[in-house]
Amino acid sequence: MSKITVFEGINFSGRSKEFTSSVSNLVKDNFNDCISSLRVIGSPWVAYSDVNFRGSQFAFEEGEYATLECDKSISSLEMVTEDLTNPQITLYEDDNYGGKSRVFTSEINLVHISFHNVVSSHKVQRGVWVLYEKSNRGGAQMVARPSRDLPNYGSFNNKVSHVRPLNGSQDYQGTQLRANFYLTSLL
């Protein structure tokens, strides 16, 4: 069974709570804006800075995260339930899926192919993807899913520099995904 266990303190200390399904508002569970470490078993999870799965996004694959760059800034949690096999995403230069496009099936630093800081929309064919503001998995994150194509990035427009598909539990590499925390309302 997939689950996430959140802790109030760093290094898995303090109060804790386990979730096996998505939580749109951590206020109801007395865990709003107080999570400092977490453990993920099974499917990846996405943490959001605001309730109702809004605001800045932080993706976590299976593993232990003793400290978080989004420390005490999580207000909702969403379990990734999509099929993560054979990922594919199409990135577009212009909003509304216009302009030059590129299809990707694996992780890539867009700087290396001169396609960074130009992306304005996407369509996910398969898998779940993390789009990063900076190269090498740096900066703010946006999680992209097949059921949630985004025709206009708004404040994330022309900022994507790195993309990668989320992996299931078998591919956990034990490193925390980096994220500089600042609000990016995407919807």
UniProtKB/TrEMBL annotation:
SUPFAM superfamilies with a match to the protein in the record: gamma-Crystallin-like (SSF49695)
Superkingdom classification of source: Eukaryota
Domain Beta/gamma crystallin 'Greek key' as annotated: residue spans: 2-42, 43-81
GO terms of molecular function: structural constituent of eye lens
GO biological process: lens development in camera-type eye; visual perception
Keyword annotations of the record: Repeat
Gene3D superfamilies associated with the record: Crystallins (2.60.20.10)
SMART domains linked: XTALbg
Family: Belongs to the beta/gamma-crystallin family.
PANTHER family: BETA/GAMMA CRYSTALLIN, BETA_GAMMA CRYSTALLIN 'GREEK KEY' DOMAIN-CONTAINING PROTEIN
Designated name of the protein: Beta/gamma crystallin 'Greek key' domain-containing protein
Organism of origin: Pygocentrus nattereri
